[in-house]
Write a structure and sequence with these properties.
By secondary structure, this protein is an alpha+beta fold. It has a single domain, classed as Nuclear Transport Factor 2, Chain: A. It has four helices and six strands, in the order αααββαββββ.
């Protein structure tokens, strides 16, 4: 089921937002808090906080690696990331900004986030799903700048 949500979210990112229903200020602020907690958790190497914001069973991180002409898409589940541990990243996200945030029907959200780090920055696309456990990040796709 959540894999289907990931594919739907990817299609959403490609096609763009539609006017399905208005997002509520409460949903928007809850999603923004999850994004903030994700940035703080990663910066501090706080695995407990990351386990709260990610969906460790179903969530996935995707990124491209390799040079021009040799790029490939890599992936890892959030559970694998949490299991391998995390070290603090002192400069990660000291400056960050949610560039766009769309909430659809109070269940699905897509956040585009600019995150600074020493020597560059990231643009993350975070797909969040609201379940009985609250908002959780189910897909993270990023590019390094």
């Amino acid at each position: 089921m959540k894999r289907m949500i990931g594919f739907a979210a990817l299609a959403y990112c490609i096609v763009g937002p539609t006017n399905l229903s208005a997002q509520t200020p409460n949903d928007s602020s809850q999603v923004a808090q999850v994004v903030h907690d994700y940035i703080v958790g990663w910066r501090n190497g706080d695995l407990e906080l990351l386990a709260q914001v990610f969906d460790p069973e179903e969530g996935v991180v995707l990124w491209a690696s390799g040079g021009e002409g040799a790029e490939k898409l890599n992936g890892m589940t959030f559970g694998e990331i949490i299991a391998r541990g995390s070290r603090p990243h002192a400069t990660y996200g000291l400056e960050s900004q949610i560039l766009s945030l769309d909430v659809v029907d109070g269940k699905l959200a897509v956040a585009k986030v600019h995150i600074s780090r020493s020597g560059g920055s990231y643009v993350d696309y975070l797909v969040l799903y609201k379940s009985d456990r609250g908002w959780r990040i189910v897909t993270k796709t990023f590019v390094t700048r």
